[in-house]
Write a structure and sequence with these properties.
2 copies of one chain form a homodimer.
Chain A: E1 10-13, H1 22-32, E2 36-40, H2 41-47, H3 49-59, E3 62-70, H4 77-97, E4 101-105, H5 114-134, E5 138-141, H6 158-168, E6 173-178, H7 179-182, H8 188-194, E7 199-204, E8 206-207, E9 218-219, H9 228-237, E10 244-246, H10 251-254, H11 258-272
Parallel strand pairs in A: 1-2, 1-10, 2-3, 3-4, 4-5, 5-6, 6-7, 7-10
Antiparallel strand pairs in A: 8-9
Helix pairs in contact in A: 1-3, 1-11, 4-5
Chain lengths: ~270, ~270
């Protein structure tokens, strides 16, 4: 398992520099020589969609993905409909921003019926997939860590994400693999292999102990216990050659100057990923 | 899926009444008509082992399990040896307390080699199993929630716990199923069925949103999103007829008077489990 020798595939997921606007994050990437960025919809909204699209285009920074669509399960049919509509808007935004990947955080439990919620997810993705295909957008099902099953995503294993992608059977539905969410899984290497041809994104960070927070407790690569290089190698072997996003939710990292975070991130990427 | 009609199978895991000593918890159970208790080693040590054994015997409260053995992975061979010895002591204590179940919390990652840590767990259990068998003690592998993979248990799915139990192949090695740790798993019902004949314990509580804390954020049955009755039914169908322990780590519950907690626990058990 060889280290990466350049930052050609590196992408800043803008959640890592939470305090930066789209403009600041894109300019930061350009200064640091980071070729790509993963954008978030609330940040794009703050900056303005057309303005954001122009900023990335003019900076020559490519958009590796847009976060996030999903959030399909809801109690009422009306609310589910609203969420499907919102996914269509997210697809339009992804197309406008020039990225071909919309990351799906599938949504949590509206009540205690887990099977029903999971069915709503599969149905929701199947429903928006043709719309996305027409716009050249791929939908990446990102299994989240099981600790988010209740409130963020009932899809919590790569096996399950693969199952849903296979069941839907659309060319433009695949999976996004974030090490933080899947590293603990005894079946992860089998499932990465099984995801071959369907991997739409790979996110890195680390699991630190003790975790300072459930949501904002991720670490910089190398500060934790995840076998980053082994996982990256497995994803490589499965044929994924696309961007590798660094996505870290962490108050301490957010409090540092963005340029410093990008510098550290580049070093750690080459050292640990 | 019918509700339970009595508290015949109810057991207080003493972690639920953290502020009570062994004596207080056993007397609380006796007052409340709760027929069994799950004890913790640090509490037994505070009370004294022989004294604890006498207290439960005299109160006519049976000991459903002792928590916990395990914690097998360690960096050095010497430390691993110390932990094996500690498991032997835990087995002796279980026998002395008159319970036939020692719950194993298998241990976290000493470094970033997850496979090696998992191997240490399987080897550790295999090594102590004959010692336990001679003393009439069964070893219950409790898969923990994946959020504890780094610091508490590298065994995080029931599938994996089943695999290890099957691989070891000893009559006295099985699994303990705690709803909090397994409820999110898309394979949980398949694996409960597969655990048939090997289920050594069933623990109930709930997953509340938002979780106030990773470790001490469990809820009382009915306050969260876990399909408790469905899981209990599946465990029943898999042939488990033993005690159902209520195990809740939660600061708010710990701050309430124990008798009140036991009263609520009985009501919620009949209503939701």
């Amino acid at each position: 398992m060889k280290p990466l020798t350049s930052i050609d595939r590196l992408s800043l997921n803008q959640a890592t520099t939470e305090k930066w606007s789209v403009r600041e994050a894109v300019e930061g990437c350009a200064r640091a020589g980071i070729p790509a960025i993963g954008l978030w919809r609330h940040k794009v909204e703050e900056q303005g969609l057309k303005e954001s699209a122009r900023i990335v285009r003019e900076a020559g920074v490519s958009v590796s993905s847009l976060c996030r669509g999903g959030m399909f399960p809801a109690e009422s049919a009306e609310e589910r409909r609203r969420r499907i509509d919102d996914n269509r808007r997210a697809i339009d935004e992804a197309a406008e921003l020039g990225t071909d990947v919309l990351v799906l955080v599938c949504g949590g439990l509206p009540n205690n019926d887990l099977d029903a919620a999971r069915k709503m997810v599969a149905e929701g993705i199947a429903e928006v997939a043709p719309y996305a295909a027409e716009r050249g957008v791929n939908l990446g099902i990102e299994p989240l860590h099981p600790m988010f099953a209740a409130d963020r995503s009932v899809i919590v294993t790569l096996e399950h994400a693969n199952d849903i992608a296979i069941e839907i059977g659309a060319e433009n539905v695949g999976v996004v693999i974030d090490v933080y969410h899947v590293w603990w899984d005894p079946n992860v290497y089998r499932e990465i292999e099984r995801a071959k041809g369907r991997i739409l994104g790979f996110h890195v960070n680390d699991w630190i102990v003790p975790a300072p927070d459930m949501l904002r407790g991720r670490g910089m690569m190398g500060d934790g216990l995840i076998e980053l290089r082994r996982l990256r190698h497995a994803v490589d072997v499965a044929g994924y050659t696309g961007p590798i996003e660094v996505e870290i939710f962490n108050d301490e990292i957010w409090s540092k100057p963005g340029d410093e975070v990008l510098k550290l991130m580049k070093e750690r990427y080459l050292e640990h990923v």
